[in-house]
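Ticket #267: bound-state structure for iron/sulfur cluster.
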Amino acid sequence: MPELKTPLDILKVLPQTNCRDCGSPTCMVFAVAVSQGKQTLDACPHLDPEVAGAVSVAANAPSDPIAELQAALGPLQEKIKSLDLEPLAEPLGARFKDGKLLVNCLGRDFSVDAEGRLHSGCHVNGWVASPILNYVVKGGGPEPKGEWVPLRELPGGKDWGRFFEHQCDKRLKKLMDDHTELMENLVDLWAARPAPDSFDSDIAVLIHPLPKLPMLLCYWKPEDGMASEFHVFFDVTAEDNLPVESIYSLGAGLAVMFEKVTQTHTK
Ligand code: SF4
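RESOLUTION: The complex was predicted; output attached.
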């Protein structure tokens, strides 16, 4: 009986539809939970019983964040190896230099080489690495139209909206409530542009986590007994340039980075 030792081993036997019927947002998250002994394979109702009966999961495989990240990125890197990167530069809004694609993320260049490896001058947050590689593999869609919607109103966003509001909007709202002045730091840190009058918000900035994937961050201060609000909006073309699960990952990753920025500036 084959023994599944790593999250990638487990992912390989899953349907990989990211349907969430097991309660995890993606098959990869489920695979990691199984590898850590927090879930069992039979919690995926779509796993072929013959497959389930033919494998076993190594007990309590140790959690290795680097291995988990590599497992998530491996299939994307395999696809990138088969691509000719130079012609992709223009449709992606990227540049090609020294055999690498330079993809700008929040004012900073990340380079992707022919092996699908990602390089940058800063620490690569795993939540951001996967969206950048997905953008290279699946991007090249239309230019943004400047029409803004919340994630749940994107064509495939209905199921992701609830997770996104929890992982991104609520976390950023708390940071803004506690450190409203930090929004202004984004202008310098993330090459953001003020976007006054957006949805009648008190503070709004436009950021570009990827060249053709702008995000509009809007904050409404508490007023007259009304609680504050924070919402992230996406261009209506967003899913033509990045799969919705990657858009979700990007937003959640930005919330994590914003939290780190806040900790640094409030020490
Ligand atoms: S139920 Fe199965 S196929 Fe659906 S997300 Fe979970 S692991 Fe993936």
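RESOLUTION NOTES: The pocket of iron/sulfur cluster is lined by residues 14-15, 17-22, 24, 27, 30, 44-46 (CB under 6 Å).
TICKET STATUS: resolved
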